[in-house]
Amino acid sequence: GIQVEQSPPDLILQEGANSTLRCNFSDSVNNLQWFHQNPWGQLINLFYIPSGTKQNGRLSATTVATERYSLLYISSSQTTDSGVYFCAVNTGGFKTIFGAGTRLFVKA
Amino acid sequence: SQTIHQWPATLVQPVGSPLSLECTVEGTSNPNLYWYRQAAGRGLQLLFYSVGIGQISSEVPQNLSASRPQDRQFILSSKKLLLSDSGFYLCAWEGQDTQYFGPGTRLTVL
C-alpha cells in the first residue's frame, strides 16, 4: 500500500519563527489533507490540497503531485500552533492513510 | 451545522471486560462514518467504516467490532478487551473533501 512519511518527527520553535513541514507519499493520490491535532486530541482539518497552493492566514500548503510531496508552511508561529500535524492521503475508495505526524512545540 | 459527539470521553476498563463506545452525528443525513484508533505518539489507524445503516467494513482484523443501528449512530464494541486495545478512539464523518472528527475517547485497559 501507499507509504506516507512526514518530517521532521519533532520540532521546537521560538514564538514568531517560521517552519516548513514535509509530507512524502509513495504513489499517486486523489486527495491530500493536512490536519492539526491540538494537545487535547481534537483533530481539525487545515487544508484539502491534492495539488497546487492554498493559504489560510499564517498557514499555507503546497502539493506537487507529480513529485509526490506536500509542504505545510507556518509563519510567525504562536504557542497555540503547538500540537501534532498530520498529512493524510487517499488513493480512491474509503481508506485514508495518515502519516506518523510532526510534533510541534512553540515556546513563548 | 453539523456536529459529532463521542462518549464517554475517558474510560478505564479491566482486561477481559466488554466495551461499547458511541458516536453520533447531527446535522447531516446518511454520512460515511469512520472509527480510528491512535496509539500514544502515533498516527491514526482506520478500524472500520460505514456507508449506511447495517453496512460495516473492517480494515484491521482484531477483537473489535462495529455496528451502525441508525443513520447517524456508529458504535464500536468488544466482548473482551486486551491490553493492546488501549488508545485514543476517534470517530469521523465524511463531508465534502474532508473528514470531521469527534472529540475522541481515551481508553485505558489495565
Can you describe this structure in just a few lines?
The complex is a heterodimer of chains A (108) and B (110). Chain A is an all-beta fold.
Largest sheet descriptor of chain A: 6 strands, mixed
Gyration radius of chain B, to the nearest Å?
13 Å
Oligomeric state of shown chains: heterodimer
What structural class do helix, strand and pairing data of chain B support?
mainly beta
What is the succession of H and E elements of chain B? EEEEEEEEEEE
SSE string of chain A, helix = H, strand = E?
Answer: EEEEEEEEEEE
Hey, roughly how much beta strand do the residues of chain B contain?
over 45%
Characterise this structure.
The complex is a heterodimer of chains A (108) and B (110). Chain A is mainly β and 108 residues long. Chain A is built from no helices and eleven strands. Chain B has strands spanning 3-7, 10-13, 19-26, 33-38, 44-52, 55-58, 64-70, 73-78, 87-94, 99-101, 105-109. In chain B, strands 2, 4, 5, 6, 9, 10 and 11 form a seven-stranded mixed sheet that branches. A four-stranded antiparallel sheet of chain B has the order 1-3-8-7, with no helix packed on it. In chain B, a hairpin with a 2-residue loop joins strand 7 (64-70) and strand 8. Chain B is globular. The mean pLDDT of chain B is 93. The chains are: A mainly beta (108), B mainly beta (110). The A-B interface holds A 31, 33, 40-45, 48, 86, 88, 94-96, 98-101, 103 and B 32, 34, 41-46, 49, 51, 57, 59, 88, 90, 92, 97-101, 103-104, 106.
Quick tags:
heterodimer, A: 108 residues, mainly beta, 5-stranded antiparallel β-sheet, B: mainly beta, 7-stranded mixed β-sheet, 4-stranded antiparallel β-sheet, 11 strands, globular
Secondary structure topology:
The complex is a heterodimer of chains A (108) and B (110).
Chain A lengths: L3 E4 L2 E5 L4 E7 L5 E7 L5 E6 L3 E5 L2 E6 L4 E6 L8 E8 L5 E3 L3 E6 L1
Parallel strand pairs in A: 2-11
Antiparallel strand pairs in A: 1-3, 3-8, 4-5, 4-9, 6-7, 7-8, 9-10, 9-11
Chain B lengths: L2 E5 L2 E4 L5 E8 L6 E6 L5 E9 L2 E4 L5 E7 L2 E6 L8 E8 L4 E3 L3 E5 L1
